[in-house]
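Work Package 4 report. The design task specified in the project plan requires that, given a folded chain encoded as structure tokens, an amino acid be chosen for each position. We show below one input record used in the internal validation round.
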């Protein structure tokens, strides 16, 4: 067993001080952090006259991408998160965007006023 030297004691004290400072500097967790870690922020807005909403999914159904639900005028827009963390929807499948909020806006743009038809659930 190695003997305790002044160098080892000072190194250990410095490491403990650095760890304590790092812990103290970490931001406090909020209730939203515990819902779905890494989940995109919820949103609810009127975009180009259409109400778009997004939130972590609760329960069953057909959901992709960490269980996130997106609605356009109350109708579910199926979204999926890609391996590179971009998002796509059934309406704008070939135009990946950074968030489900952006996917909802892209779908509204693509729909050009047309009504979103719900997909049948399996």
């Amino acid at each position: 067993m190695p003997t305790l030297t002044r160098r080892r004691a000072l190194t250990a004290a410095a490491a403990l001080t650095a760890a304590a400072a790092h812990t103290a500097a970490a931001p406090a967790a909020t209730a939203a952090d515990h819902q779905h870690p890494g989940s995109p922020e919820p949103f609810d807005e009127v975009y180009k006259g259409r109400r778009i909403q997004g939130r972590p999914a609760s329960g069953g159904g057909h959901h992709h991408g960490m269980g996130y639900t997106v609605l356009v005028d109350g109708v579910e827009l199926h979204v999926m998160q890609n391996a590179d963390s971009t998002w796509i929807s059934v309406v704008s499948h070939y135009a990946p965007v950074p968030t489900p909020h952006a996917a909802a806006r892209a779908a509204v743009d693509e729909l050009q006023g047309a009504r979103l038809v719900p997909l049948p659930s399996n």
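Strands lie at 43-47, 50-56, 68-72, 75-77, 79-81, 87-89. Validation will be extended to a larger panel in the next phase.
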